[in-house]
Design goal:
alpha+beta; 5-stranded antiparallel beta sheet; 5 helices; 38% helix; globular
């Protein structure tokens, strides 16, 4: 087993100090950066812009923690209308899952998720989910768990 570099140790201490929890994919990405470690300023910029997971921004009743939609029409830039499905954790305003129908459900990338989130904010759907027939629930739908399992245990 290789000894971690001083930069890797520093990065780990920064994560711990700032309470930043990264997904496995993000951790692997940072490990790749550290292996190269040629562009340390870019690594630090990414660290400073890293999303903090599970940091509550508001309290909601447990039975209304998740905002679920199984068919939101959305036009991505330069494309025709698509259908997306999503789950948002209302305590953090983070997507648990966001997929686009391309003949089968595919995960949205960060840019697409940001675009969908902006659309929801613009339409005030996050504050008035009943008006948009969005479901508030305490349980994650089965289809959202598939992506979470695959992200944690890639084949």
């Amino acid at each position: 087993m290789r000894k971690p570099s001083s930069k890797a140790i520093l990065l780990g201490k920064l994560f711990k100090h700032h309470g930043i929890t990264l997904t496995d994919a993000e951790r692997r990405s940072y490990a790749d950066y550290l292996r190269c470690a040629k562009d340390w300023p870019a690594i630090m910029e990414k660290l400073e812009n890293a999303r903090r997971f599970n940091t509550p921004i508001r309290e909601v009743p447990l039975e209304e923690r998740y905002l679920v939609c199984e068919g939101w029409p959305h036009c991505f830039v330069g494309s025709q209308e698509s259908i997306v499905r999503f789950v948002i954790d209302r305590t953090t305003d983070e997507f648990v899952c966001c997929d686009v129908d391309t003949g089968g459900w595919e995960p949205c990338d960060k840019r697409e998720r940001d675009h969908v989130f902006g659309d929801l904010e613009c339409n005030d759907a996050l504050n008035e989910p009943e008006e948009w027939e969005l479901e508030l629930t305490g349980d994650l739908p089965d289809w959202s768990l598939e992506g979470l399992y695959e992200a944690q245990y890639p084949s």
